[in-house]
Design goal:
By secondary structure, the chain is α/β, with parallel strands linked by helices. Helix content is 43%, strand content 21%. It has a single domain (3-242), classed as Rossmann fold. It has helices spanning 41-44, 47-56, 68-73, 80-106, 120-131, 158-163, 165-168, 176-181, 198-211, 228-242; strands at residues 3-10, 15-22, 27-32, 60-65, 113-118, 136-142, 185-190, 215-219.
Length: 244
């Protein structure tokens, strides 16, 4: 399996960043880490190994960035306003730096990207497709936390509003963005085991349903925890079913 590590300085995040790619051909899959993770977290926790049959077959090429915004959310020394600013900048970094890098790597300037993630990675996958349905065609969200209001210390800034789909989608109105979103798909998977919060998944599904945005809720049942063994099992299944 090919593995390529790319590094550059991001002017939007004002720091050095890393993105790692596994695979040689196939549908680009942008796979976000969890809150404290880096670009190689998914390899250390054997998610890349779980996806290896699809990667080696040339069905997908997996790209993973650092969790710059996720680390900021769990840093209690920062303010809510700063965390939201970093999240908004992270979105700009993904759209204006990571996506062009993926398109250059695939030698296809118009290729659409599938995105996925677990926990805070699910939030980022969900936010990516909602903010940029012109680029992202499918979001696979597992065990997600989709409302970060609890990390805002009572603040509600414009950065937070525009980076949080649960807050900006209700005000989107009939628009080209919503029209494009109605041609996309959001998959919401969640267990009923330890540390899971399925009510967050249903909150997202209810909002998307009201707006006519296609979504699919997959409740895995008891015994499926908010943990890597669940995600290693489920993500390859979604790739098999949803990516042609």
């Amino acid at each position: 399996m090919q593995k390529v590590v790319s590094k550059w300085y991001s002017p939007r995040l004002q720091r050095d960043v890393t993105i790692v790619r596994w695979g040689h051909f196939g549908q680009p899959l942008l796979l976000y880490p969890t809150a404290g993770g880096d670009a190689e977290e998914i390899e250390r926790f054997h998610l890349v190994r779980a996806l290896a049959p699809h990667i080696d077959a040339g069905k997908i090429k997996v790209y993973s960035p650092d969790s710059v915004a996720g680390r900021t959310w769990i840093d209690r020394k920062t303010t809510g306003a700063y965390r939201a600013w970093v999240q908004n900048q992270y979105d700009s970094y993904v759209y204006n730096e990571v996506v062009p890098a993926i398109r250059q790597d695939t030698r296809n300037p118009n290729v659409e990207v599938v995105t996925a993630g677990a926990s805070i990675g699910a939030y980022n996958a969900f936010a990516s497709i909602c903010r940029h349905p012109d680029v992202f065609s499918l979001a696979i969200c597992m065990s997600g936390t989709y409302d970060l209001s609890g990390w805002m210390d009572g603040e509600h800034t414009l950065d937070f509003h525009y980076s949080s789909p649960m807050h900006f989608l209700p005000f989107l109105g009939e628009s080209p963005q919503l029209e494009q979103l109605r041609k996309r798909l959001v998959v919401l998977g969640c267990g009923l085991g330890r540390w899971e919060s399925p009510e967050h998944t249903w909150d997202v599904a209810n909002l998307l349903g009201k707006l006519g945005i296609p979504n699919y809720v997959d409740i895995w049942g008891p015994g499926w925890d908010h943990d890597w063994p669940s995600w290693r099992k489920k993500l390859p299944e979604y790739v098999e079913k949803l990516i042609k």
